[in-house]
Amino acid sequence: MNAVNHVVEVSVENFQAEVAEKSKQVPVLLEFYADGAEPSQQLAPLLRRLADEYQGKFILARVDIQQNQQLVQQLGVRTLPTVKVIFEGQMLENLEGSIEEPRLRQVLEQITMSPMERVREQLNVFLDAGDRNNAIEMLQKVIAEEPNNYALHSELCDLLILEGRVDEAKQIIASLPPDSEGINKPKTRLEFLDAAASLASVTELSASVEAQPEDIQARFDLALALIVDEQVEPALEQLLIILKQDREWQEQMARKTMIKIFDLLGAGNIVATAYRRKMFTFLH
Prior knowledge:
The protein is α/β, with parallel strands linked by helices. Helix content is about 60%, strand content about 10%. The chain folds into three domains: about 5-110, Glutaredoxin, CATH 3.40.30.10; about 115-185, Serine Threonine Protein Phosphatase 5, Tetratricopeptide repeat (Alpha Horseshoe), CATH 1.25.40; about 200-284, Serine Threonine Protein Phosphatase 5, Tetratricopeptide repeat. It contains 15 helices and five strands. The two termini are about 45 Å apart.
């Protein structure tokens, strides 16, 4: 979609079609400007650049205040620049005076999110607060509305496993297509649970490793127990030590296990990024 499609001049005559109607499908930024006015000249290039960058995720509707006094009065425009954000027929934001690019981007990121992105944002809010129960309830409600969104099913399974509701998770996994998006995450977590099921406690395994630091199997068992206990960074530290002790042990089991943990943590995770770098530095 090019600039012609998502930047439009608005008047009283086309306001209903270009703003009111189109805002039902896509957010509209209503820019009030005046030719020759310095505030307008400063803001206009930024808005056009953002409109081009977002490629139709919002419409930039420009109102020349000198030619459209009726709209100015009806919408209560008091100063330049003024940008009003309209979505689904409602005014969401009224930005007046000097408007910096970071503020505009913050508004745009919020209003251009897809419904699924909004779900994931709220999910992250719950998880960052350690509130898995509400995260699970939210996912269950969304899945009821979008039963074919298998990525959400996978995310739900992973949270159920973390909450100890393993049988529920297994039942859901068994009902999903084997190539469902994100399905490897709960499957990997179940693998770790199974591998650690017969192991001693973290305290006992830590004592064993301290008594026999060269015992690679004991250290690997400790790493598995730490993973299941959600002590991911200490687990990665133990696996890194194994790499240094014997990188080829059990067909590079330490490296393969670290990669599985990175996948569990997800792209962009700070811990995963740090230990991926450490692993790469050691191996290469």
